[in-house]
Every structure is written in structure tokens, then in C-alpha cells.
């Protein structure tokens, strides 16, 4: 498997697509585009039956450029590299560094595709894909793109390191709504692989990610705190908030247990009913013990629930080992 490596020596978990899957995706895209082209050509031909041959030829060339070349360019630009054929085959076009493509990448790919796919019936594209180590055709080489596989076998994700104990809960009032998902993913990938990176390279990546988080959140990290520790604390805070939102709907069901316990036969009136009526002390003692037992049972369940809720955020990020930034 040929892996992608960024300029910061970070290995990306992307698998380049090979010729069979790319050929199948291209065949699906060509079938769809050709059907649309024929359909539009028939409609335009009926509408332009009274025009001369020069006008019909100009319209045909315009349809060829707009549908067979402009259509795939527009689709790849709007879908960020996922045409209908690539979506069916689980493929996506990305930049060499793993980022999403833009219009200029799709334009170069579409212009080169008209030569190496349409005009040569895919022969040039097949030869270039077989020769390339990552299965790229000429359009990918000139555009600086790569077709990768999105649907791959799932792997066990590495656990995130916990933040330092003195930073846990430090950012509970931080506004994280402006942080995009792409930045969260980059921070998570760095934290799971920071001990595999060169210390100098890892430190520069951590500093850059921390600066971007500061720009998005508007908070200044404490003085003397390593950038990796700051990133771990902020990610831990986000995980804690997600856990509270996920388990927020469980609390009403847990709170209903004390009411059921207080209404059970063991916590209600039988001890008072069986007590002799002539012994008020016994009746008062039985009533007091039943009430105290009922209140203790009612207090025990919320206490356990609160205890579990209090332990869960700690379980997400807490650890007896503490945080060890890369040395």
C-alpha cells in the first residue's frame, strides 16, 4: 500500500485507488454523461431543425464542451471529488496532501480527461495509471491530485492521551462552536501519533494546531503549558461535553427509580399497619425507621447516578499515569 506523506512528515491513512476500481467508476460516469448528452442533443436537434448546418455544428460543439467536459468538472467541484461513479465505487479525488480539491484541480483534470479518456478511448489514462506507483493518470499528475479509496476495512482507533490533571476542567466555559470538524480531526490525529513523530516536527505541528485553536476560540493557553497538553485538554473538554449530551436523556429514567422505590411495599405502610395501636412509641419508631429507610433509598439512587455521571468524564480523560508530551 502506497501511503501519503505530507510536508510535515505525517503519514496519512489514505489508500490510492487502482486501475480496476477507477475504470469502473469512469465507465459509470461516462455512461451517465453520454446519456445526458444524447438526451440533450435530441431535444436541441428537434428545436434547431430549421437552422443551417453551421449553426447546428456550433451547437453540437457547445454541447460537447458543456456536457462532456464541463459537466464532470462541475460535479467534482461541487461534490469535492465525488462523482456518481466514484460514489458508487467508494472513491474520492483529493489533493496530494489529502485535502479536498477545488475548481482549479477539477478544471485541469477535466481538460486532460478530454484528451486521455475521450479522444483516446481511455488508452492513455490506462497506461499512465499502470505506470504510476499510486495509480494516477496524467490529469492527476498535472492537477496535483490523487484518487483514494474511502471504504476501507475498519481499524481500531488509538486512544487519546488524557490531559494533565491540573488542566482537567480548566476550559469548561470555552466556546467551541467555531472550531470546524477538520481541525478536530487534525488535532485527534496528532494526539494519537505524536509519540511516533520526530520531536521537532511534532512540536511545530502542535504549535500550529494550538495557534489555530486559539484563533478559533479566542482563549490564550496558560503560560508554560506545552502545546500538546493544551490540545489534549481542549479535546478532553469536547469529549466531556459530548458525553453529557449523550447521557442527558438517561437522567429522567434514573430519577424515576426513587419514586418507585418509595411506593414499593417494603418502603410504604405495612410496618406501621402491623404495629400495635396501644404502643405509640413503637409506632413512632416504626414510622421513623420506615421514613428514614425510604429517604435513604431515595437518596442512594440519585447519589449513585450522580457518582456515575461524575466518573464518566473522568473516565474519558482521566488517567493515573497523567499526560506525557513527546520529548
Automatic annotation (TrEMBL):
It is a multi-pass membrane protein. It is found in: Membrane. Keywords: Membrane, Transmembrane, Transmembrane helix. The chain crosses the membrane at residues 23-48, 54-75, 111-131. Residues 258-304 have a biased composition (Low complexity). Residues 17-144 form the RDD domain. Residues 258-327 are annotated as: Disordered. This is RDD family protein. It comes from Streptomyces rhizosphaericola.
Amino acid at each position: 500500500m502506497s501511503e501519503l506523506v505530507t510536508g510535515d512528515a505525517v503519514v496519512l491513512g489514505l489508500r490510492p485507488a487502482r486501475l480496476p476500481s477507477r475504470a469502473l467508476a469512469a465507465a459509470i460516469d461516462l455512461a451517465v454523461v453520454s446519456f445526458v448528452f444524447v438526451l440533450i442533443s435530441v431535444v436541441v436537434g428537434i428545436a434547431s431543425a430549421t437552422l443551417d448546418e453551421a449553426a447546428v455544428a456550433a451547437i453540437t460543439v457547445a454541447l460537447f464542451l458543456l456536457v462532456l467536459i464541463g459537466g464532470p468538472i462541475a460535479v467534482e467541484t461541487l461534490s469535492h471529488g465525488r462523482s456518481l461513479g466514484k460514489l458508487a465505487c467508494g472513491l474520492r479525488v483529493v489533493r496530494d496532501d489529502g485535502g479536498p480539491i477545488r475548481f482549479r484541480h477539477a478544471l485541469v483534470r477535466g481538460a486532460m480527461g478530454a484528451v486521455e479518456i475521450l479522444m483516446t478511448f481511455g488508452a492513455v489514462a490506462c497506461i499512465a495509471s499502470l505506470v504510476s506507483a499510486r495509480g494516477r493518470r496524467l490529469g492527476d499528475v498535472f492537477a496535483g491530485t490523487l484518487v483514494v479509496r474511502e471504504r476501507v476495512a475498519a481499524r481500531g482507533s488509538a486512544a487519546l492521551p488524557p490531559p494533565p490533571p491540573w488542566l482537567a476542567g480548566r476550559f469548561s466555559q470555552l466556546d467551541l462552536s467555531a472550531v470546524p470538524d477538520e481541525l478536530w480531526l487534525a488535532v485527534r490525529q496528532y494526539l494519537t501519533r505524536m509519540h511516533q513523530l520526530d520531536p521537532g516536527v511534532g512540536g511545530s505541528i502542535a504549535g500550529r494546531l494550538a495557534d489555530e485553536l486559539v484563533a478559533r476560540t479566542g482563549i490564550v493557553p496558560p503560560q508554560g503549558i506545552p502545546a500538546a497538553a493544551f490540545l489534549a485538554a481542549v479535546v478532553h473538554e469536547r469529549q466531556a461535553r459530548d458525553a453529557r449530551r449523550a447521557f442527558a436523556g438517561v437522567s429522567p429514567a434514573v430519577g424515576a427509580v426513587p419514586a418507585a422505590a418509595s411506593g414499593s411495599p417494603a418502603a410504604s405502610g405495612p410496618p406501621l399497619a402491623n404495629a400495635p395501636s396501644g404502643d405509640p412509641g413503637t409506632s413512632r419508631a416504626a414510622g421513623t425507621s420506615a421514613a428514614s429507610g425510604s429517604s435513604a433509598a431515595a437518596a442512594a439512587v440519585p447519589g449513585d447516578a450522580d457518582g456515575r455521571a461524575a466518573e464518566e468524564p473522568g473516565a474519558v480523560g482521566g488517567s493515573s499515569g497523567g499526560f506525557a508530551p513527546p520529548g
